[in-house]
Amino acid sequence: MASHLTILIVDDDDATASRLDNYVTSAGHSARRLPATGVQPDYILSLRPDVLLVSLGPDATEEILVLCRAVSFNLLVCPIIMYGPAPDVDTMQQAMAAGVRRFITSPVAREELLRAIVETRTQAERNQARLTPPPRAVEAVAAPPSTPEEAPPRSLVCAVFGPKGGVGTSTLAVNLAVGLQLGGWRTALIDADMSHSSAAVLLDITSTSSILQLVVSGDIAEHELIPSYLVKHQPSGLHVLLAPNEPEQNERITPDHLRAIIGVLRASFEAVVIDAGGHYDDRTLLVLDLADKIIVPATPDIAAARTLSSFLRISELVGHDQAKVTLVLMRSDSVRRPFIESIERYIGRAFTHQVVSDSVRATAALNSGAPLVLGNRSSRVAGDLMGLADRVAGLEPGRDAEPSEQPGLTADGAAAQDGGGAATRSAPAGRRFAQSLRRPVVLPLALAVLILCAVSAVALATRQPTQRATTPVGPTPTRTLVVLVTRPPATPPPSSTSGAVGGPDTALLLNPVAPLRFTSPPKGLVGAPGATTPP
Length: 535
Prior knowledge:
Elements: E1 6-10, H1 14-26, E2 30-34, H2 41-47, E3 51-55, H3 61-74, E4 80-84, H4 89-97, E5 100-105, H5 110-131, E6 156-161, H6 169-182, E7 187-191, H7 199-203, H8 211-217, E8 231-233, E9 238-241, H9 255-268, E10 271-277, H10 282-290, E11 293-298, H11 302-317, E12 325-330, H12 337-347, E13 353-355, H13 359-368, H14 372-375, H15 380-393, H16 415-418, H17 421-425, H18 429-437, H19 442-470, E14 485-486, E15 506-507
């Protein structure tokens, strides 16, 4: 970056513009001032400033945004720095979409302004260099390390940023950090969501040590003391730097503080996960710039899709490498696949990973302080979260984590694309069978077969007695009525319930219940002469 820059200040307030002019010129740069009202974008473009400082005034907001869009589109190497009172989320999103690279809250401090000028200009020149075709001359390439001991240690900084609230940003950040720790990466978690910190609740950590304590004590200047402010999560071994317990004090934490903390932890840990929250400010933009990977969770609804689309547009405008942005669809099983595809068409890119919903386990994990990847490792949602940790770390699928039960995905969620099913095939047969039963297609099918068998058995059992009674096997037997005719005694016997038929002679039916077929009585069994067979 050039040591001498031309700074253009656009502000209707002469006092503020004069003060910023003095800041800039005292650092060896040149400055020029213009009023914000009535300024023409073409005139600004003809001046070709190195850095543009614009004031976000209440009366010229739309006019300033038009100016910013014109400069960012035509002067790619000219960064735009906006200053003014703290804006709301909508205004900040509009400003970032218009090309604003940095926002400084009034009153503007000299050191903060000069640092923002240098950083934004350096970043703009780097982006311009990436767009410039490389020279054709062949340059020497450094030889790789000859031994493993010479290779630098692995280092990963991953920021989790949720443009819309309520999508599970903190839950995803905590479980991702624990998943990396369980995967063998020495991991630190920074809770940088200053307004809505929840890492302490999700991990059941009670401690007064926080980022605020580190800043107030002055120990942040001694880099070797920064790791001592981290709290260890005993069940997983994860180290956590908590957000301030007093949200009203979070303004005392500056982007420089976060820069120092991230730099020290990157050198001390193999992976650093940052819960960046969901608000656009200087600290969040710095975290996203320093991150190697940006995880962006979203839910399958219209509001989240619109917010996600705005973030992607802002990310491209500020020069983020889109290869490091990973889109994660939360609660993916709450809608059908065609609706997800319509969201992907709307935002212009596909979701890299999906996590199913499990409100019962998620609520239990929140209340107990046990992350899902620790307390429910065999569940679908834990498998998806562990799969995301594998994907972020670039590990091979099928570690110790249970595989995701989403159709077509293994534990890292990518078996259908990169052949990750090899780990599943190498598992023991009993485990593969148990895993197959947990899949959403196999279990309902098995239950349906069992129910069908039970219904068939009951129907067969109820039909068999009727068939035996009404459909005899073999020829129909002939039943014979045997009649014994005797002389009545002098005194008639008492009436009997055996089914005898009264009359001058008493006929005893030997089998009065069964259906009868009368034939001629056998010879010798007829008593008195003249006895006849009943009709």
